[in-house]
Specification:
The protein has 187 residues and is of the alpha+beta class. The protein folds into two domains: 80 residues, Orthogonal Bundle (Arc Repressor Mutant, subunit A), CATH 1.10.10.970; 81 residues, ADP-ribosylation fold, CATH 3.20.170. It contains six helices and nine strands, in the order H-E-H-H-E-E-E-H-E-H-E-H-E-E-E. The strands form three sheets. It has a three-stranded antiparallel sheet with strand order 1-3-2. It has a three-stranded antiparallel sheet with strand order 4-6-9. Strand 2 and strand 3 form a beta hairpin. Helix 1 packs across helix 3. The termini are far apart. GO terms for molecular function: NAD+ poly-ADP-ribosyltransferase activity; tRNA 2'-phosphotransferase activity. It is an enzyme of class 2 (transferase). Removes the 2'-phosphate from RNA via an intermediate in which the phosphate is ADP-ribosylated by NAD followed by a presumed transesterification to release the RNA and generate ADP-ribose 1''-2''-cyclic phosphate (APPR>P). May function as an ADP-ribosylase.
Length: 187
């Protein structure tokens, strides 16, 4: 599969497994899973034929590991879901986890005034997404231009009672990050 097709498939999967499953007539279960055969059939019926081999390739090589597959659901065929970032109501059923002392958030300069005033909020997603290292946060922040990387005092947040969870692809999730736990590059 060439790189252009892999990007197309990844974007298609993200759109329908995170944001608009109804657009192709699929229903995610309470935890975001859908049978792979159902997804492939719906994609073909809606003008985006996709093979199981292409899907498996994108799941395996996606640098952000955006998708998870499981083959062990009793009474169901193989399942797929987005690892995080849903704007549709799903419960990923991720257990609380103790975060490292610091996590990171990549953003862009235009967002800094709002972040300084309100902290980090989940916006359209269910949770705020945090990266385990500066490099990942820099890549995330660069999607919209020049990145700004904020440090999050996750250890202090955890001690203050904030709950963290970690997705299958290593993205840390929390409901919000109050300003007092943020370190800005110029501070």
């Amino acid at each position: 599969m060439d790189e252009q097709r892999a990007v197309q498939v990844s974007k298609y999967l993200s759109k329908h497994l995170r944001h608009q499953p109804e657009r192709i007539g699929i229903t995610l279960d309470a935890h975001g899973w859908v049978e792979i055969d159902t997804l492939l059939r719906a994609a073909a019926e809606h003008g985006f034929p996709l093979s199981r081999a292409e899907l498996d390739h994108v799941v395996a090589v996606n640098d952000k590991q955006r998708f998870a597959v499981r083959d062990d659901a009793p009474g169901r065929g193989p399942l797929i879901r987005a690892s995080q970032g849903h704007t549709v109501g799903v419960d990923l059923a991720l257990p609380p986890a103790e975060p490292p002392a610091y996590l990171f958030h990549g953003t862009h300069p235009r967002a800094l005034a709002a972040i300084r005033a309100e902290g980090l909020r989940p916006m359209a997603c269910d949770d705020v997404h945090l990266s385990p290292d500066r490099e990942t946060a820099t890549r995330v922040g660069s999607r919209r231009g020049r990145p700004v990387v904020l440090s999050v005092d996750a250890g202090a947040m955890h001690r203050a009672g904030h709950v963290f969870r970690v997705s299958a692809n290593g993205v840390w999730l929390t409901a919000c990050v109050p300003t007092r736990f943020l370190r800005f590059p110029d501070s």
